From TrEMBL, chain A:
Recorded GO CC terms: plasma membrane
Name the record gives this protein: Nucleoside ABC transporter membrane protein
Organism: Roseibium hamelinense
Coiled coil: none
Coarse class of the protein's main subcellular location: membrane
From TrEMBL, chain B:
Annotated keywords: Cell membrane, Lipoprotein, Membrane, Signal
Ranges where the ABC transporter substrate-binding protein PnrA-like domain occurs: 32-307
Pfam family, any one: Bmp
Primary residence: membrane
UniProt name for this protein: Nucleoside-binding protein
UniProtKB/TrEMBL annotation, chain C:
Higher taxonomy: Bacteria, Pseudomonadati, Pseudomonadota, Alphaproteobacteria, Hyphomicrobiales
Native organism: Roseibium hamelinense
Subcellular compartments: Cell membrane
Protein name, per record: Nucleoside ABC transporter ATP-binding protein
Origin superkingdom: Bacteria
Entry keyword annotation includes ATP-binding: yes
Molecular function terms from GO: ATP binding; ATP hydrolysis activity
Family per similarity comment: Belongs to the ABC transporter superfamily.
């Protein structure tokens, strides 16, 4: 009836694999209908994502974004909060990164700028999550509604700032000036000998993302704060009984969640674009929800799911490049199916598996 | 074992795809809006179609899903021998600059932005000149003395269009009032016909009887509502007169199709020239459309005025002011 | 009566994952009888009834109703077979009238008006025939619980039920209301209806049923004519061994006051006063029991004392501190600091995070104790050691602190809570419904622990709706009715006397 009754390898390995297979089978049908060979499509997709250095680089670059947004959603999940504002928090996080880079890039090297940019990203993202968190904690305004509203407010604010305040004067493009070297993270190519990621912008943020994963794991499963977050998420009444303040837990959790989402901007702004521009988040915040769901809100799962979605993004781009009949809309359909099977239909195969493994255990008990 | 075999077959598959075209074939990379955006990219796509129909040559196309793909796509085309490689949209400027320096032997084209490189031809448009023509026609067609403007996303390029439009309106009569609204702050502002309709309706209720759209897909809703409420609409980018015959006053075309078509033809004929091409009214890059669908709406007086403005701009007697450095419009 | 049984179940099996909730159940229920089914919580009674009512589908086995083999895929088909069910938690729309509730789901066509008149006549007939008097136009939420239950019964009869299943019907009733319910059930039987009564209360079985079947661990272990059996035999059948129904204890030796409450008033979120001007004290070395029908303010009283609910006014004296509750908000962490333990009424909702492994629940509320912390981190080794010790000391099974708490039985879960609260050695222990849903074996154990607390000179405040439990454990009994303490009695007060107080019939004057 519940997760405890399945072996861990089934829960964390077999079920995601089955969901993924189902998603690809259905996608395969769609591919067949439009007259292409599904096997070939899968080959191109895999090759595009993993078959050559640059492909791997792009896969990891996208994965870095998903790691941050996925962690952000996951941390909130543990407190029973559904933060779908990762999009806006990451967007505003870009502001924090840009301020640090614009202020420092001409005077100091990148490794001096970096800690300021990280703090800026996290603070900006956290600040953007704070108001919805506060409203939820003290007024009961539902966080799903407020965070999604804050996505729109973030979009408006950023356009206003980039067009009217911090945008490059006289430019038609709503974006800041391009950062100098002091505002650019090194690409992995630059400091890993023998690495060949081609022109892929995968950069130091990937390492930052992996550190964040470890940090989240420590936070959730090893600290008292994490214990409080999980208690509150699993049973708010019991948490109150245990003297855990709901207001504090909601606010602190959302600040951490928003901060993680904001740090996604490190990868895009300081790692790749080297300037703050409109709409740089383009859905990474929302896909983070699917990543967190598929990764079971566990950092290791999130890394795996993030890489999977990175593969879909990069492999998908190559796919629509190599096989023009597979348009980018088809790629979105395939991505959507993965999200559908991994997220929404997560429980589709579970009952059958529970039954199967129970029978097996019973049979073993009888014969053994 | 199985995994190894799968990978082996994957790499065999790759060998097949990497084959270059036998002869130099042009390639185009559309911006994120997609080639059927009803506006800018679609205009480029029309240029592609014109080229393929006339020459029988084929063109490789790619639609970006996100800007990060741009450089990869441009490189992919260049490395496989496609030429010229055309990039649509200002967001691709950095990618074009990078790809152009990496493939100095390949010719690149960028539309709507300037990239300075020895192998890049840049096409930019003087949208404000076209908008000026629209403003002149709108002011003359208006009986209420109020005209409207519905923009897409509130970004400089749209504001520039608005600025030209206001100048055109005021050139007819200082007292004509211009109502203007932007549809939003996200790219969705270019793809939201319902929102466009809403804004058009509110402008019509406030007295506007001619409304221009500069809002991509959102503008389709503007024209629809204008037709429904009995006011006139003005189309942009491509010829939209036929959407609601007799109810679209005119269309202000931005001839992205011409830029695309010209660059393909020029390359084929060996006359491709890198450098900046500014397409205004004079160069035929911006124009207004008079066809069977709107002939009854355009009086001879209006036609004369519009053509006078057109020739004035072409000769340089009439100057449509651009946005000031701080983004504000000198006329309001 | 003719010989065909109303219900016959043959070899019914139902599994939930690894749990075999019903194992080869055979059951024959005679027409026109009151048939009791008794068993501990988790014995499979509710599952069996849910199969009969179409909520669950049996894995295998046959259901025979009035001699015909049937399949019951949903409650609709159960209704059409003449089976009606009165749930433990009423399925009524609170802001509808009685009449509207009764016809809900049986409106009979799109046009309501005609149906309503017919329904009103039918309702009147049923009320008279079975002495089920309720005002058809009263709004359900204004009715006392006992009457709401009658509405449920009417609902079933209105749909033509010949077989009526009642799931723990007396849990929410006063003794007087329960007596009235039993009278109604007798009338129903005499009119030829068949009644299936699910309960875990031996007393009710003895009082009203004709036949009783006992379930234990998913199996039907025995069926007896009620007149041929005894409470102790049934208890033994339920548990599988002989049990002590009375608590053995010495005379209390109360000393200093450890907890005092003066003029406590609590208002709930709807603005209704739920605790009204309550004052009492608990001394070291005594168990003070609060008796009352569920919903008369006991739960709110307990939660307020634990710091979970905010009081409107009143003072609290504990551990040498005097706290004016109107002035200052107390929170559960602070109350623990003041050496108060709290075993909450509802362990699932409040006392445990059931998705956690056992050891994490062993520190719930005490996770800030330096003993379990290592800077900002939890000291997992220390926590697991504590959990292991408690498991051994309280005989918690299975003895595995890593096991998910939800996978422990009700009794063992309660032991986890009890161990956590008692082992911190508090001066005052608040205990709510300590044995609700706990099997008889564990009840014995829990009662013993509470007596030990008392004998170790701690103060225990016990809230329970089980009158037997209150009478068996308490040294003083306070009775709550409608938010007030309406009387205090000694441990030897008779059930009738307490019952009258609980019903609000007799005030303090008597």
């Amino acid at each position: 009836m519940n997760a405890g009754q399945l072996p861990r390898w089934v829960d964390f390995g077999l079920i995601p694999l089955l969901n993924l297979t189902a998603a690809f089978l259905v996608s395969g049908l769609v591919v067949l209908i439009i007259g292409e060979n599904p096997i070939e499509v899968v080959q191109v997709l895999l090759w595009g994502a993993l078959g050559f250095g640059e492909g791997v680089g792009f896969t990891l670059f996208y994965a870095t974004n998903f790691i941050f947004t996925g962690l952000a959603v996951a941390v909130a999940f543990h407190a029973g909060l559904f933060n779908i504002g990762g999009e806006g928090q990451a967007y505003i996080g870009g502001l924090g990164v840009a301020f640090a880079c614009l202020a420092l890039d001409q005077v100091v090297p990148w490794w001096v700028t970096m800690p300021f940019a990280i703090v800026g990203a996290a603070l900006a993202g956290a600040a953007w999550a704070f108001i919805p968190a506060w409203l939820q904690a003290t007024r009961g305004s539902h966080i799903v509604i407020t965070t999604i509203m804050f996505n729109f407010i973030a979009a408006s604010l950023m356009v206003y700032l980039l067009v009217n305040v911090i945008g490059e004067a006289g430019s038609m493009q709503p974006e800041t000036r391009t950062f100098e070297d002091g505002g650019r993270l090194p690409f992995l190519n630059d400091f890993i000998p023998f690495a060949d990621f081609g022109t892929a912008p995968v950069n130091l943020s990937l390492v930052l993302g992996l550190i964040a994963c470890f940090g989240v794991w420590l936070l959730i499963w090893r600290t008292r704060l994490g214990y409080e977050i999980r208690s509150f998420g699993a049973n708010p009444t019991a948490a109150v009984y245990a003297g855990i303040s709901p207001v504090r837990t909601i606010v602190v959790t959302m600040l951490i969640s928003g901060g993680l989402a904001g740090m996604m901007a490190m990868n895009e702004i300081m790692g790749s674009q080297h300037r703050l521009l409109i709409e740089f988040v383009t859905g990474y915040g929302f896909v983070g929800i699917a990543v967190a769901l598929m990764g079971r809100a566990h950092p290791i799962g999130i890394v795996l799911a993030a890489v999977l979605f990175g593969m879909l993004y990069q492999g998908g781009a190559e796919l629509s490049f190599e096989i023009p009949t597979i348009t980018r809309d088809m790629i979105v359909v395939i991505q959507g199916l993965v999200i559908l099977f991994a997220g929404a239909l997560e429980h589709m195969f579970r009952p059958a598996l529970v039954q199967f493994f129970t029978m097996r255990r019973l049979n073993a008990a009888q014969t053994g | 074992m199985l995994i190894l075999r799968t990978f082996a077959s994957v790499f065999i598959a790759v060998a097949v795809f990497s084959a270059a075209p036998a002869q130099a074939e042009p390639a185009i990379v559309y911006s994120v809006g997609g080639k059927f955006d009803g506006s800018f990219n679609e205009s480029a796509y029309q240029g592609v179609q014109q080229y393929t129909q006339e020459t029988g040559n084929s063109v490789r196309e790619f639609e970006l899903e996100r800007d990060a793909q741009s450089r990869q796509a441009l490189r992919n085309f260049a490395s496989r021998g496609y030429e010229p490689v055309v990039a649509i949209g200002f967001n691709q400027a950095n990618a074009v600059a990078a790809a152009a320096s990496e493939f100095p032997e390949t010719s690149f084209v960028i539309v709507d932005m300037v990239v300075e490189a020895p192998n890049v031809a840049s096409y930019v448009f003087k949208e404000s000149e076209g908008a000026y023509l629209g403003g002149v026609l709108a002011a003359m067609a208006s009986e209420s003395g109020t005209v409207g403007f519905v923009g897409g996303m509130d970004i400089p390029i749209i504001r520039r269009f608005l600025c030209g439009y206001v100048q055109g309106v005021k050139s007819v009569g200082q007292e004509t009032e211009v109502l203007f609204n932007m549809a939003g702050d996200t790219p969705a502002a270019f793809t939201d016909p319902a929102r466009g309709g809403e804004l058009a309706r509110s402008q019509a209720q406030s007295g506007a009887d001619v409304i221009i759209q500069a809002a991509g897909g959102t503008g389709i809703g503007v024209l629809q509502t204008a037709a429904d409420t009995g006011v006139l609409g003005i189309g942009t980018d491509s010829n939209q007169n036929g959407l609601h015959p007799g109810q679209v006053l005119t269309s202000i075309r931005k001839r992205v199709d011409r830029a695309v078509y010209d660059s393909f033809i020029a390359f084929d004929q060996g006359t491709f020239k890198p450098g900046l091409n500014v397409l205004g009214v004079k160069e035929g890059g911006m124009d207004w459309v008079l066809d069977d669908n709107n002939r009854d709406l355009i009086t001879s007086q209006m036609q004369q005025a519009a053509n006078a403005a057109l020739s004035g701009i072409s000769t340089g007697e009439l100057v449509v002011e651009d946005l000031a450095a701080d983004g504000s419009c000198p006329v309001s | 009566m003719n010989g065909t049984p109303a219900i016959e179940l043959r070899k019914i099996n139902k599994r939930f994952g690894p749990v075999h909730a019903n194992r080869n159940i055979d059951l024959v229920v005679k027409k026109g009888s009151i048939h009791g089914i008794i068993g501990e919580n988790g014995a499979g009674k509710s599952t069996l009834m849910s199969i009969l009512y179409g909520f669950y589908h049996a894995d295998d086995g046959d259901i025979v109703i009035n001699g015909n083999k049937v399949s019951i895929p949903d409650s609709k088909s159960a209704i059409s077979l003449g089976i009606g069910m009165v749930h433990q938690h009423f399925m009524l729309v609170d802001n509808f009238s009685v009449l509207e509730n009764v016809i809900l789901g049986a409106e009979g066509g799109a046009r309501l008006a005609g149906g309503v008149d017919k329904a009103r006549q039918e309702l009147r007939r049923l009320e008279e025939e079975y002495e089920l008097r309720v005002d058809p136009d009263a709004i359900v939420q204004d009715l006392p619980v006992g009457l709401q239950q009658r509405v449920e019964i009417l609902k079933a009869l209105f749909r033509g039920a010949d077989i009526l299943i009642l799931d723990e019907p007396t849990g929410v009733l006063t003794p007087a209301e329960a007596d009235h319910l039993f009278k109604i059930l007798e009338v129903l039987r005499d009119e030829g209806k068949t009644v299936l009564l699910i309960t875990h209360k031996l007393r009710e079985i003895m009082a009203i049923t004709d036949t009783v079947s006992v379930m234990r661990r998913g199996e039907m272990v025995a069926t007896r004519e009620t007149s041929q059996t005894s409470m102790s035999e049934l208890a033994e059948l339920m548990v599988g061994r002989s049990v002590l129904l009375r608590v053995e204890k010495e005379q209390a030796q109360p000393s200093d006051t450890v907890l005092a409450i003066e003029n406590l008033t609590v208002t709930d979120s709807r603005g209704v006063q739920v605790v009204k001007d309550v004052s009492f004290e608990v001394r070291a070395g005594e168990i003070v029991g609060i008796a009352g029908v569920s919903g008369n303010g006991q739960s709110e009283l307990l939660e307020t004392l634990a710091g979970i609910r905010r009081a409107t006014s009143g003072t609290l004296r504990i551990g040498g501190q005097v706290i004016d509750l109107a002035d200052r908000i107390i929170d559960p962490a602070e109350m623990r600091q003041l050496s108060m333990g709290h075993v909450p009424e509802d362990r699932h909702r409040m006392g445990l995070v059931t998705s956690f492994p056992e050891y994490e629940n062993a520190i719930l509320g005490y996770h800030h104790d330096p003993e379990y912390s290592n800077g900002v981190f939890l000291d997992l080794a220390a926590i697991k050691k504590t959990a292991q010790t408690e498991i051994e000391r309280y005989d918690i099974r299975p003895p595995n602190p890593l096991l998910k708490t939800a996978n422990f039985s009700g009794g063992n879960q309660q032991k986890i809570v009890l161990a956590r609260e008692i082992e911190r050695d508090p001066q005052v222990l608040l205990v709510g419904q300590p044995t609700r849903g706990v099997d008889i074996g564990a009840i014995e154990f829990i009662h013993k622990r509470l007596i030990e607390m008392r004998d170790a000179a701690k103060g225990v405040l016990l809230v329970s709706v089980e009158l037997d439990e209150i009478r068996g454990l308490s040294d003083r009994i306070l009775v709550m009715f409608d938010g007030r303490i309406v009387g205090e009695r000694g441990p030897d007060a008779s059930e009738g006397e307490l019952g009258l107080l609980m019903a609000g019939v007799e005030g303090e004057a008597s």
